[in-house]
Amino acid sequence: MAFTGKATYSAGTNLPELAEDVSDLIGIVSPYETPLLDALGDPMREARSTHHEWLEDELLPNKDTINDATYSDPAEDPDFVVSHGSRFRVGDQVQVANSEELMLVTAVNGDTLTVVRGYAGTTPEELADGLTVNILGNAALEGADKPDARFSNRIRCGNYTQIFTAAVEVSGTDMAASQLGLADEMDYQKQERLREMIRDLENTVINGGQVGTNPQGSATVRRSMKGIIGHLSTNVFYAGDSGFPSGADLNEEKLNFVLRQIWENSNGQIDLIVVGGFQKRKINGFTGESRNYASGDERFANMVNIYESDFGVCRIVTTRWIPQDAILLLDSSRINVLPLAGRSFHFKPLASGGDYECGELIGEYTLELKNEAAHGMIRDLSVS
Prior knowledge:
Blueprint: H1 15-18, H2 23-27, H3 35-40, E1 51-56, E2 63-65, E3 79-81, E4 92-96, E5 102-109, E6 112-119, E7 132-138, E8 155-160, E9 162-171, H4 172-176, H5 185-207, H6 228-231, E10 236-238, H7 252-265, E11 272-275, H8 277-284, E12 306-309, E13 312-318, E14 327-330, E15 335-339, E16 346-350, E17 356-369, E18 376-379
Parallel strand pairs: 10-18, 11-13
Antiparallel strand pairs: 1-8, 2-7, 3-6, 4-5, 4-7, 5-6, 9-17, 11-14, 12-13, 14-18, 15-17, 16-17
């Protein structure tokens, strides 16, 4: 279904829109011009303030990294330093990633752990700085007092609304004259400006930025929304980074690397892969070596619209407005483009000061992107 810009439950009920509701005009906008908005669909609610807020939370971490380069014997030393000692408790079973050795934590002193090496009959292995330590779970003593309470703090996140406007002005002569190919010049101008505004909305949803000083806006400071790219920080990978698959061309190895990282670090379910034209052709090429044709085939198909991996089934969305060196991996259930209540795209007639009719098209929207760690991005891919 094409994006209309309205909150589903309230479309057509907002008083400022009753005079002239232009949702039908927006509905005729080609879905190929705003494919990401069409994929996300209409939100189920509206924003109620120019600063739209939501709460996020996370579970207590169950992994950490070794932050210790000095050992008396890396295969026997019972003490080592980690980055965040507060994540551990006495009685935790821990295991270094890709190791078969189990260890039992017997003391936590700041960031220093004291452990039983080779716990449960396993064979001690060498430790090294930077290795990931997984906390398997805590073994409590029978009849022991309750442990110290631990909890995570909810985070208050938000984004500001951005006003999109365009003026429409038609002379009295044009209003009266018979026009070729259209019934009403004013309606035609509304449609053209609306197409431009919804195009700009998708562009801003992807690339928009937020001013650092007075982001709430004022008579001299323009209020703008932060886009998807501006929200992402955790799962952002650059071609050429250490540890990232080599080469600048997009391939399945890079795509699955990021999908796996998101899967390991969050409960996000990636279902949208957003790319530009060049990277879409790279994805189409994933099937090149395995494509088969029968002798009677007269049709050549070279297109991938759904990518199914071990980490989710993803729809490929091709948009003109994403940077060509980038690819976005999104969980659409955590993304909404919301109108401010009563401020979805509508036309406001204005008083004429002469021989013309005029008005203004107005819409105010914000992006709600929850749990940025549930999404990902690859940058600096080759574009030629």
